[in-house]
Amino acid sequence: MKFRYENLEDKRINAKRPFWKEFLIVFGVVLICSAGEVLIFNQQMLDQTNPWIMALVGMSYALFMGLIVSLGTRFIMYTGFQRPLTEIGQAARKVAAGDFTVHVHSQRKDHKKDDLEVLIDDFNKMVEELATIETLKSDFIANVSHEMKTPLAIIQSYASALRKEELPQDEKKEYIDTIVEASKKLSTLVTNILKLNKLENQEIIQTETYSLDEQLRCCMLALEEKFDEKNIEFDADLDEVTITSDESLMEIVWNNLLTNAIKFTPKDGLVKIKLRKDGSQAIVKVSDSGCGMSDETCRRIFDRFYQGDTSHSEEGNGLGLALVKRVVDLVDGTITAESELGQGTTFTVILKL
User: Fold this and answer.
1) Residue 120 phi, psi (nearest 5)
2) pTM, whole model, 2 decimals?
């Protein structure tokens, strides 16, 4: 995959390196050296010095002048470029070694931004982003390890118990059912991780024009058995809406939202789904009459592995809504959650037609 970037003017740059400082340093050095050359030549003329000696002294002084001018320009290069670039290079080596706490300090005292200051700002921002990614990576690995450890421990424990020959038949059946459920949870976890990883690296979607209301009806019918298990009443109010999007990806969204609504709705509860067309947008609302969520949970509900209601943790792994958020982002849509403790939750998905 090739990426193209436009070289646009950086509006953060509001200053340039001051030319007058460099000019004054060089001018001062040359002026002093020239004055010294005139004084030496004048003294030689008064003393009627031998021309060869005068030439030798002149060449020596020219060498001295060249050294002084070189030191002056070297000082300008060091303070203006070499010192900050050396600091950036040292910081980059620390970042390469895994230290994301480094910070390159500003070189200007007037708080203005030239090209070098913008480079330093971008470097510091890059390090901060890398630190965030590293933290997310560590959290992801820790969460995956924890989520896998629990069902594996259950499978190992109950499989060991099945070795007992004197185990009653009813207990044996119970142990087998527990192992099957744990293996299903583990399989679902791995499947969701693979789906999420694929979606995180996916940028191109396969669009087609289809009936959104028909898709929602099919998703509802597929979950009819789960609705019946908890005797949940279902209220569907769907307008006829046709959209152009990735049908298979959007199915992930509706299945996860509806499954979530069923999971958090108590027996004899109510789940509502509403579809409306508003100008060039399709608005889908999925509501439940469940336990609701706190403000903190609403803010973090789309984070991977986050589960606000731990009482239902055995029924999921915290990846469903992360998948939903990624799919909605891929199709250039938006999703929001509104909830109140004890009053249920409403997820609103807005899609472009």
Assistant:
1) -65, -45
2) 0.52
